[in-house]
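no rush on this but wanted to send it before i forget. theres a chain ive been looking at and ive put its sequence and its fold in token form underneath. please have a look and point out which stretches look like helix strand or loop to you. thanks a lot i owe you, the record is right below:
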Amino acid sequence: MSGQDPSSGPTSDPGASTRVDRWLWAVRVFKTRSAAQEACKAGHVRVDEARAKPATPVRPGEVVEVRGQQGRVRVLEVVEPIEKRVSAKAAAACLIDRSPPPPPKEERATPPRREPGAGRPTKRERRQLEQVRGAKRHWRR
């Protein structure tokens, strides 16, 4: 016996399961287990398209969806249900990330720059600046 806890590392039992909040914390989706529990309670976690409570068991082959900030969705397939936090390399081996790629960033045109000391913009220049910035004109009703 190597002196390690059998639940600390990846398991080889195909029927093994663990709580979804523990698994999300162990594979480093959340920094703390309480953050994983809060996400489950708020309805941001789904296991096989069903809303998951923190104690929902996850087994190998199940798909876990986590909705994060800015609407980003992570789709993770469980390879091994671990309960203890392990190294990042070992955690990466316990899941398959099937998340869609993030949307491309919008490129915006840079607003025209005025030379320092050029004075105030004329009425025409100001209207052009507002048009580029997308500002609404408030002077007409």
About this structure: Residues 18-97 form a domain with the Structural Genomics Hypothetical 15.5 Kd Protein In mrcA-pckA Intergenic Region; Chain A fold (CATH 3.10.290.10). Confidence is low (pLDDT under 50) at residues 1-8.
